[in-house]
Write a structure and sequence with these properties.
The chain is an alpha+beta fold. The protein has 2 domains: about 140 residues, Lambda Exonuclease, Chain A; about 55 residues. It is built from 12 helices and 7 strands. It has a 5-stranded mixed β-sheet, with helices on both faces. A two-stranded antiparallel sheet has the order 4-5. Helix 4 runs antiparallel to helix 5 and helix 4 runs parallel beside helix 7. The radius of gyration is 20 Å and the shape is globular. The N and C termini lie far apart (about 40 Å).
Amino acid sequence: MILLDSRNYHSIEANKVFMSNSQYKDFIKCEAYAMAKLKGWKEPESDAFGVGSYVHAAIEGTLEEYKVEHAETIFNSKGKPYAEYSKADDMIRALKSDPFIMFILQGQKEVIMTANFAGAPWKVKVDNYNPDRKRFADLKTVKSIREKYWHDKYGYVSFVEMYGYITQMAIYAEVERIWSGRDEWIEPLIVAISKEDIPDKEVIGFTDSDLQYEFEQIEQNMPRILAVKKGIEEPNRCGKCRYCRETKQLRRIVHYTDLLA
């Protein structure tokens, strides 16, 4: 079993051994996409990823190092930050000026944990871990906290449901429970900060029943996922993701009414 640290946590070698929240969601999204990533295929990082990492670094206390390492993407030729990073500075100020948020974000930073459940070894990296207060908190930078998103299965939902964050909280809570030897889950929280002109912010909580439902879904999905990951079953293609579009080969004519399927 590979020994995880901050340098190899996101490596292909680690992802081949361990399941993770992001890998699980990749398989749910598209099995072919998930397998391609395990074989080294990559998609470009979005601006949203850079802003999120920038804000995380500020809360972790490593922002100056982050600026040095990513200077080309943060600053223009005149040494001024690009607009999205100026906005990120506003988000950081909104977080740091709120005593309740800073209280919630107390604890150990970027804690790596591993555990076995649902037939597989899992890995997580917890943003803010506070075992003494029996909670952990994950920081999310979002377009809007209150915007409604259309989900094909559930209709209009919040960003929490749209991006699978309840699933993430369930995975993190179960890994922490096993890793720490607890009998029960500790409290999972999301600290959300929006990218609006005046950043909105909330601390978002979940009940055990929320987590239990997601955990049951994970247990139901894992046999198929593991069969594909181990090469026992061929991966299905969603036909819509970046990888499927990039490798698409047409073999038939489709009726126009199938275009929205």
